[in-house]
Amino acid sequence: MKKTLFILLIFGLMQLSQARQTDSTFVPAKFHFSASFGIAVMNPDDINNRIATTNATFGSTAKTVKSMPEISAALAIRPMRDAKIIVLRGGYLWAKRDFNFTMPQTDTSSTPTGEVNGTITETYTAYPFSIGVGLATLKSDAQLQVEFIYAIGYIKEDGAFITSDGKRTSYSSSLFSPAYGFRVAVQFAVPITEMLSLHLEVAYRGLTLDSYEDDQTGMTSPIEFRMTGISGTMGLTVEL
What we know:
With 240 residues, this protein is mostly beta strands. It has helices at 2-18, 45-58; strands at residues 31-41, 67-77, 84-106, 112-136, 142-162, 168-191, 196-209, 213-214, 225-226, 229-239. An eight-stranded antiparallel barrel has the order 1-2-3-4-5-6-7-10. The protein is elongated, with a radius of gyration of 23 Å.
């Protein structure tokens, strides 16, 4: 995957070098707004070990996290209307895992009196915000950028238990973590109209959420969520 990104970066540099041949009378748009959807590939060992342990404890079959859907919006600005750009980006990634289980219900003497059915749902979310710089062809059909990321992440756990007499008990807890990282991306665009284009972007992101604490108690947690990996997105870009 990293080799693929490297090849795309080289191709993007070739495209940018050809931009010098563009008609000097052409004036590029100063602002480009884009909205994208894609998949971020990752392998968060700590979270996957947590999922595997919960599966073993409750006999559930939740899958480990190998990727997360991602939506994002970005604004590319050309301060001098040349190849140099400034990029502002905001994104959202999410994944959810359900752990269903059944366990014996006992009285004070540990005598079985029925069964308890329950579900524990863990939701993992992250909001990466970034600012970066890059280069783009004058007609914006190829773009390279390097971004600095500030992200906030949440792990929310919701549990519900129903006893044999129909009594329901539920709880909810949430962990929060800030993090810093980086993102390198190459983007290619195909015009649809004079102002609208379809783009494809491949990026490599380095980001680890490792400072989780409980939202209510403020107690720290040793959980680590490593979101480092390749992502691929596509979407629409509008010249403003």
